[in-house]
Write a structure and sequence with these properties.
The structure is a single chain. This protein is of the alpha+beta class and about 325 residues long. It has a single domain, classed as PPM-type phosphatase domain (Phosphatase 2c, domain 1). It is about 35% helix and about 25% strand. The strands form three sheets. Strands 2, 3, 4, 5, 6, 11 and 12 form a seven-stranded antiparallel sheet that branches. Strands 1-14-13-7-8 form a five-stranded antiparallel sheet. A two-stranded antiparallel sheet has the order 9-10. Strand 2 and strand 3 form a beta hairpin. The protein is globular and about 65 Å long. The two termini are about 25 Å apart.
């Protein structure tokens, strides 16, 4: 399928994706995203935000492997999304377990690749003989990725699984008459994820139980909480769950996905909705209502909603006036319902 054909398919499904590299010379764009339709039964949208020297590879691996691991786990469980009854708590629990297992397998995969790469280098073996060429020098000890997956199910339901701070929101509003914008109601956001930050009560307890500390790093204009152990030799991390980051996982970080199932997120008879899944390049400069309005206005103007949203976020980053005109990588998936 050509790029133009793909664009037409996505346009027909009211889905758009966009990614912009941030203004940093130390790494390429470390964000990744994917969209997938499962036989017309479910749609999957996901974003990955890599960090560390090899964060782009961590995001690459996650984006490539996680959808396959999810589908494999669903097949093994016999719990296909389309067959679920909203009242069947047992099947809902199975879906939660399936998603959580896929994330743990993904994390284990990064451990395996790292061990193979280190062993190959130590033994003088060409790592390309034992690893995928693009991943042959991957070391996840101080690099990793967020992972946020939203599986939209029949009857306006959603399974959401994530680690890290790539956020997913569903924003809905009353439908207008199609003739004037005044007929629409206000946008109402539903946060589908919470950012996994070290100061969350449950996350903090797990981290401190290992002897690690949560410290405030930065300067007068910008501060961030990081996980730190005195005399550690790797960069401190600013989240409490991730894929990879093997060193930080000895400090209480977790690859266990937080998994939730949401029932009837909007009423299709009276409301329209937009799902936005994005890296923090969006959420550090925009709130959900701003993001929904920007995507909607871009769509109404005949432009790509995700591209319009990413461009607006980039402009907001530039106006912050950070040192060196710093901007983060920006990646977003937009789906209208």
């Amino acid at each position: 399928m050509s790029g133009r054909e793909l664009g037409q398919v996505m346009y027909g499904s009211q889905v758009s994706m966009s990614s912009l590299k941030g203004n940093k010379d130390s790494a390429p764009n470390q964000d990744r995203a994917f969209c997938m339709s499962i036989g017309g039964v479910a749609e999957v949208f996901s974003v990955f935000d890599g960090h560390g020297a090899q964060g782009h590879t961590a995001a690459d691996i996650s984006c490539e492997a996680l959808p396959k691991l999810l589908l494999t786990q669903f097949l093994r469980s016999g719990c296909l999304p389309g067959g679920l009854n909203p009242q069947d708590a047992g099947k809902n629990q199975t879906m939660r377990e399936v998603a959580a297992t896929a994330f743990q397998e993904l994390h284990g995969f990064t451990e395996m690749i790292t061990a193979s790469s280190i062993a190959a280098e130590k033994d003088g073996v060409d790592a390309a003989t034992v690893l995928c060429k693009d991943w042959m020098h991957f070391d996840a000890r101080a690099s990793g990725s967020t992972a946020t997956v939203v599986m939209m199910l029949p009857r306006q339901r959603a399974l959401v699984a994530h680690v890290g701070d790539s956020r997913a929101v569903l924003v809905r509003r009353r439908r207008g008459d199609g003739r004037t914008l005044e007929g629409y109601g206000p946008w109402n956001p539903t946060e589908l994820t919470r950012d996994h930050k070290p100061d969350l009560q449950d996350e903090k307890a797990r981290i401190e139980a290992t002897g690690a500390q949560i410290v405030n790093a930065g300067n007068d204009t910008f501060t961030v909480l990081r996980v730190y152990t005195p005399q550690q030799t790797w960069p401190s991390i600013n989240m409490s769950r991730s894929i990879g980051d093997l060193h930080a996982h000895t400090q209480g970080l977790s690859a266990k996905a937080e998994v939730n199932i949401f029932e009837r997120l909007w009423d299709p008879d009276t409301e329209e909705a937009v799902l936005i899944v994005a890296s923090d390049g969006i959420w550090d400069v925009m709130d959900p209502v701003m993001a929904a309005e920007t995507a909607f206005n871009s769509q109404q103007s005949g432009n790509d909603p995700a591209a319009g949203l990413a461009a607006d976020a980039l402009d907001r980053w530039m106006r912050r006036g950070l040192t060196g005109s710093y901007t983060d990588d920006i990646t977003v998936v937009v789906k209208f319902f």
